[in-house]
Prior knowledge:
Blueprint: H1 12-15, H2 22-34, H3 45-51, H4 56-68, E1 72-79, E2 82-89, H5 102-105, H6 107-110, H7 115-118, H8 137-140, H9 145-167, H10 172-186, H11 194-211, H12 216-230
Amino acid sequence: MEKPGFYAILPSPVRYDRRLSASEKVFFAEITALSDQCGYCYAGNGYFSELYDTSDRTVQRWVKHLQELGYVAVTNVRDGAAMQRRISPLPDAPHEETPETEADKNVGERHPVSAGDKNVAPTPTKMSPTPRQKCRLEQYKNNNTRENNTRARARARETAAEILQQAFPEDARLTAALLSFAESRAAGKHPLTANAAKLACSKLIQLADEAGVRDRYGYMAAVLEQSILRGWEGLFPLKDDFVDKAPAQRPANTADRPREIGPDTDITDFL
Length: 271
């Protein structure tokens, strides 16, 4: 039997009934989840004992206790040659007030309630009249694990892009190659995280050091382009020949340099 998906119901009478153990409360919630399709649960003791790693006798005791307290109804129906047990959660189960203990009497003394709080009525809670109800999309879309993971990966890619843009700002080709590599990873199964972006930059520096090239930025850009073209998620030394040449030196900007005055300089040239 497959495990039920989505949600279970645990009404307030069950939650706050001190006659029930924590395991019995979870067990009741499991019954409501299994009753989602048919209105009753037909799973056997073996299913529950394996699910909760307990014995069949313990499961039988849970069922009997919930039945005695009026939280479930148990019926046996013939299914072919075998008898099928059906456990139905009761939405309007009776709830007896448990006697107040000394600890309960002292709660007000330990945690005094303000006058304003005394006038606020507690939010009423009640079990759904039918265990087969379905929640609307807007009620659970923010709890969707896949959607949350997708949003987290999107935030990680944004952070990674910022790291890559600031890693080598002096070389436009290398920056473009880094961003293209991040896009290539984002299209695969393992998007580039912020930490992976930092490691990728360190790996590029290491590869350039090992290659001993003069054009370090050109070599690092070629490494990235090689991984993009071959669909690699990692960065490796170039397999093709790399034409190494010293990077072009930018001409010095002499516009703002102070002009030197020699013994033969005509002072009128500076006026």
